[in-house]
What we know:
16 strands; alpha/beta; single chain; globular; Immunoglobulin-like; seven-stranded mixed beta sheet
Amino acid sequence: MQPGGRLLLLIICLHYILFLNLNAQKSFTSIQVKIFDEKNEITGARVRFTDLEGKFYAPVGARADFPIINTTVPQSKEEGLILDNDRKFNYSTGDFKILLPQEKITLEVVKGFRYTIYQDTIDISQMSSFLEIHLEEAYKQPEENWYAGDVHVHFIDPETAMLQMQSEDLQICNLLISDFTVDHDRFRGSIEPISDKEHLIYYGQEYREDRLGHINLLNIKSKLIEPAASPRRQHYPLNIQASDAVHQDNGHVSWAHFAAWPGLEGPLGLVLKKIDAVELLCTIDPFQEPIFASDVVPALPVNSGLDLYYRLL
C-alpha cells in the first residue's frame, strides 16, 4: 500500500473510533410512548424517531437495521420498512418503550390515509419519561360498506400482517400464495385465527402467466388453483378458466396491477365478465387505456394492492 493510502486508512479508522466514543458518551433516557386515536384509545401506527443528524432509533425489542428478506423463508417477520432516501419506520402497537439520547429528536407518526401525519421535534433532556401522541382524523370514513384493505401482499406471515394492518389502518389483508412463494401449506380456505372483528386476514392466490397476465384469487375456500407451485409454461390454462373455478367456489377475482404488463388476456376477461374488480397501480393512468374507453366493458369496482414482495407501505 502506498504511504498516501496508509494515511487515508488511518484517518478513516480514527474518525470511526471518534464516532464510537461520541455515541458511547451519550446519555439515554427510556421513554414510554403511547399513541391515541380520535376516540382517545391506544392505536397502532408506524413511527420514526431520528436525531438531528438523521440517525434512526427503534423501539425497545425492534431493530433499527432492517435485514433483506430471504424469499425461501415461508413466512417472514417484518417490523419496519424503508422508503425513499433511506427513510426508516417501525411498525408499532401504539404502546412501547424507546431509548433516546438526551438531545433534540424528530419524530414522525403515520397511520394510513385517514389520519393526519404527526410530526414534531422534542428535546428529550427537557421532558419526562412519558410521551403521549394524539392523532387527528384527516377525514371521516363511512361507517358502513367501506373497508380499507390490501388485495395483494406476499411473503409476510399473519402475525406481521396484523401488526402492519393495525399500523396502517387496514381492515382486510389478502396474503397471496403464488408460484414463486413457499407458503402453500398455509392455505386453509378460511379467515386466519389471529384475525379479529376489525382486522381480517385471509390466504388467497395470485395466478400468474408471463404473457396472459396475473389475477388475484380471493376468498377461495376449497383449494388452490393448479398449477399453484410452479409457473405455467404454456398459455394454458387460461386465466378465465381459473376465474370460473373461483366463482364456483364463491370467490372473488381481481386483475392484478392493471393495466400494467403482463395483461394480454385482460380485455377478454373484462368483456366476458370473468373479472370482478381491477387492482389499479399508481404508476400509470389506467383511465387513458383504450380498454376503459370501450362501452362494452362492464362497470367494475376498483381495489388497491401494493404487490408486496417485501413490505414497502
